[in-house]
Amino acid sequence: MQKLAELMLQGNNLAYLGSGIIGFFILAYIVYNCLSYSILRERYHGIRFTTKNIAYITMLVAVSASVTIVVSLVAPVTVFPPVRIAIEGLMVKIAGFIFGPIVGVIVGLITEIIVMLFVPSFIHPAFIIVVICYGFVSGIGASFLRIGKGNNWIIVAILNIFLLAFAGVMYYIIDVANFPDNTINMAGILMSKEVFKWVFLLSVFLCVIIVWIVYIVGTVTGKSKKLNVFLPIMLFATASEYLVTALISAWGDYGFLGLETGDNDNGYILMFMSRLVQAPIKIIGNSAILYYTYKAVSPLIKSDR
């Protein structure tokens, strides 16, 4: 187990593992829906590519791509991949949350291709994977919108289980791995393994506290109906931040910055750490933006479907 843990923390292996696992679930979900539509056509409740749905999907792709392109002309800072991904990922997540995982994946892929054609920026496979995963994870979050309706405690429980399980797995991997002098070399920066563990745990536990604050304040102030939408959005925003942004986007970040990754010098871990520090703030910020965007866009689409 020690060698496996050390292997996971070498190079970009965590990013490869995260991409592979999410890719497997995307493929499995597509196969499942194809079989369901073929065998149980009359009882199939998944996405149907009707003319109207295709028009809405095209509209979301156009909005996502055009907003990113226009912003890049006004604010050149968007040529930096992390900024570009954050902007174009907004409508990709909304598309997935409204139409489901398959549409989220399609919108993410097409949007990224269009943006790459018109916005001069650093191209890395990690960022393409990140946008696709945003669409899939947000689509899965739509299922919890139905499951947790009227039962907000279910979403809170799932959020806590996810965060604690993710923290437990990563803590175990870091703890078991053996490093020379118990230090990790991150692009020339030496850091104790214990510090790495506690930074990770602090990030996750801070998110747990934020979840409980949102739930308690919303319940006490009688905002349960708003929580019915906000908590599922917070769930997929949290999953996206840790499973996609932290694990996979860090792979592209270190490549963009030209950091080295080797046996004794791991630029990926440095970027992973920086993403962990940002995670709690980004989760609450993204959740608020996505909530109000969803409340504005969703009625326009659902009222006409």
Automatic annotation (TrEMBL):
The chain crosses the membrane at residues 14-32, 53-74, 94-119, 126-147, 153-174, 195-217, 229-251. Keywords: Membrane, Transmembrane, Transmembrane helix. This is ECF transporter S component. It comes from Spiroplasma gladiatoris. The lineage of its organism: Bacteria, Bacillati, Mycoplasmatota, Mollicutes, Entomoplasmatales.
